[in-house]
């Protein structure tokens, strides 16, 4: 083909002959002059490049189209064939991925040639392109490379800062837009990164995610299922999903036609979703693309899970170290007076013996009282530690017998009476009728003791009221104090191991009492919960199933008067 010169082209355009010639071809053809003015284009070109009238192709860039090389895996934006032809280069046919003004993409084989002037300078250029039917948007090289890059990016443990880069690998290779959602099981998922190929639509996507995040109940059914989802989204569906007119406009502006939601699953829990959107209705996700998205999601889930495990392990080590510090301090506290008292006793006995005088039984008894109190404290601490290791190893054994919870509580309150008066706490028990059930006596005592000793410890100077009652097959103990209370943010963690909501400078303790309490209560099949207001006191409610008890225990007993202790 010889190069027609610019005047010849102009004449051909004017006469409409060029148009006629271009329409003969099944390829997309575009002719521009040296200034980038589109002189003519055929129907195919109009369809492919979304052109409805001859516009300007500044410097050989067709309006709104981005050209990326598709014959290597780099996907870099490059100078398109038409622009190169305008500089006089004859551009041989090669593979290109073209992103069109509406955000959709297609793969094309394109070549271009300069239209010469008699002096040999380019007076214009001709672009020839034809769509390549690709079974999937990715070839084997792309997928391998994408997975390798994703693997390198994710590393062993996921860092949220890498999420946008991860999406950059997937967009536009797997879709025009992607959103990565993460959320612990049972929590509403939150978008950690979002990307759209088109800058304007990217802003819209961010707006939708920021202002119109789906309410958890709408997202969770999909999220919780942990199954791959593939939807063709219609305008009517977008209208139905939109919460207001702005939302509808944004959703339609994004124009997702096909949605692919791949769950992120780790250790059989759904921890997120990788959402991919494809705007070109004609291009569904191929089986190969779905497989690739699943593989990326699998690797992401693994890396997210690793990061979570690492975080948990670090936290566990931190808690253990903190606990060891507190435990040594707590174990040492009773040892000091114990040591002093024994030393003192020893000196007294030695001194008196030296003068052959009898030792005063009263003095010895007083000292031994202190010794015994401290030994009891140490025993409780060590017992608690042993209980925790028993619970952790799953060796908590219950010996069930028939008991009256009301009298168990009364006994414990009686035992606590001296320390309550020392702490200036008025102790009140309301247990009008026996509450029979089948429980382990020692463990039941331990639970009530823990709740009561906490009420006295954190409620010193205020009254403490204990109520024992039953409702059908459930027995209930409530312990109310008027002490320091617990803040809303601390409430959920006080039943955890080693967790404390107070400073160890003000209150001694290992942070194990409530943990052990909850474990025992759960072993009984019951529940224990707390409500509190800082500065207003706390209410602990213990509910226990009464077990397999005879019917007559369920009927009311004569109610004795409430007994203040
Ligand atoms: P501790 O040995 O620290 O008392 P617990 O497991 O018994 O350990 O309690 C855990 C934490 O819960 C305590 O450190 C305290 O912050 C809070 N707590 C428990 N009971 C009460 C209460 N009645 N009033 C206020 N805070 C309480």
List the helices and strands and how they pair.
Elements: H1 6-15, H2 17-23, E1 28-33, E2 38-41, H3 43-48, E3 66-69, H4 81-86, E4 91-99, E5 105-116, E6 122-131, H5 140-154, H6 163-170, E7 177-182, E8 190-196, H7 199-211, H8 216-225, E9 229-232, H9 235-241, H10 245-254, E10 258-266, E11 269-278, H11 287-354, H12 361-392, E12 400-404, H13 405-422, E13 427-430, E14 436-440, H14 441-458, E15 464-471, E16 474-481, H15 513-523, E17 527-533, E18 537-545, E19 563-564
Parallel strand pairs: 13-15
Antiparallel strand pairs: 1-2, 1-6, 3-4, 4-5, 5-6, 7-8, 7-11, 9-10, 10-11, 12-14, 13-19, 15-16, 16-18, 17-18
The chain binds adenosine-5'-diphosphate.
Adenosine-5'-diphosphate binds next to helix 14 and helix 15.
Quick summary:
With 565 residues, this protein is of the alpha+beta class.
């Amino acid at each position: 083909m010889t190069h027609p010169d610019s005047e010849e082209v102009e004449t051909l355009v004017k006469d409409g002959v060029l148009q006629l010639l271009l329409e003969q071809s099944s390829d997309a053809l575009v002719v521009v002059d040296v200034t980038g003015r589109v002189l003519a284009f055929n129907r195919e070109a109009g369809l492919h490049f979304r052109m409805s009238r001859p516009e300007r192709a500044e410097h050989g860039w067709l309006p709104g189209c981005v050209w990326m090389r598709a014959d290597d895996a780099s996907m870099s934006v490059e100078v398109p064939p038409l622009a190169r032809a305008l500089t006089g280069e004859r551009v041989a046919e090669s593979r290109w991925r073209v992103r069109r003004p509406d955000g959709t993409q297609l793969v094309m084989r394109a070549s271009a040639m300069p239209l010469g002037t008699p002096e040999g300078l380019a007076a214009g250029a001709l672009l020839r392109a034809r769509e390549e039917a690709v079974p999937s948007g990715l070839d084997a090289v792309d997928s391998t490379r994408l997975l390798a890059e994703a693997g390198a990016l994710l590393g062993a443990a996921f860092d949220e800062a890498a999420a946008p880069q991860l999406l950059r690998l997937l967009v536009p290779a797997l879709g025009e837009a992607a959103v990565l959602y993460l959320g612990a099981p049972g929590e509403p998922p939150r978008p950690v990164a979002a990307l759209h190929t088109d800058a304007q639509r990217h802003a819209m996507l961010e707006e939708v995610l920021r202002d119109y995040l789906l309410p958890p109940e709408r997202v969770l059914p999909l999220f919780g299922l942990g199954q791959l989802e593939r939807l063709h989204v219609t305008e009517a569906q977008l209208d139905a999903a939109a919460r207001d007119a702005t939302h509808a406009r944004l959703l339609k502006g994004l124009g997702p036609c096909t949605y692919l939601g791949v769950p992120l699953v780790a250790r059989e829990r759904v921890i997120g979703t990788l959402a991919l959107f494809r705007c070109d209705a004609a291009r569904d996700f191929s089986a190969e693309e779905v497989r690739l998205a699943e593989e990326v999601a699998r690797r992401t889930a693994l890396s997210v899970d690793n990061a979570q495990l690492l975080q948990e392990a670090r936290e566990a080590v931190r808690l253990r170290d903190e606990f060891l510090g507190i435990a040594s301090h707590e174990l040492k506290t009773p040892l000091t007076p114990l040591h002093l008292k024994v030393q003192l006793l020893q000196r007294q006995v030695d001194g008196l013996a030296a003068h052959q005088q009898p030792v005063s039984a009263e003095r010895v008894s007083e000292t031994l009282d202190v010794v015994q109190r401290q030994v009891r404290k140490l025993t409780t601490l060590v017992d608690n530690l042993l209980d925790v290791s028993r619970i952790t190893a799953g060796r908590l054994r219950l010996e069930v017998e028939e008991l009256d919870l009301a009298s168990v509580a009364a006994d414990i309150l009686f035992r606590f009476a001296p320390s309550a008066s020392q702490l200036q706490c008025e102790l009140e028990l309301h247990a009008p009728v026996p509450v029979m059930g089948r429980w382990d006596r020692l463990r039941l005592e331990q639970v009530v003791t823990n709740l009561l000793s906490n009420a006295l410890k954190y409620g010193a100077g205020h009254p403490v009221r204990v109520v024992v009652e039953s409702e059908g097959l459930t027995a209930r103990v409530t312990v109310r104090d008027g002490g320091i209370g617990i803040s809303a943010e601390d409430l959920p963690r006080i039943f955890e191991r080693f967790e404390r909501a107070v400073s160890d400078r003000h209150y001694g303790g290992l942070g194990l009492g409530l943990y052990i309490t909850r474990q025992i209560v759960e072993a009984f099949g019951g529940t224990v919960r707390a409500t509190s207001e800082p500065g207003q006191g706390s209410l602990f409610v213990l509910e226990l199933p009464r077990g397999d008890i005879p019917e007559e225990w369920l009927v009311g007993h004569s109610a004795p008067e409430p007994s203040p202790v």
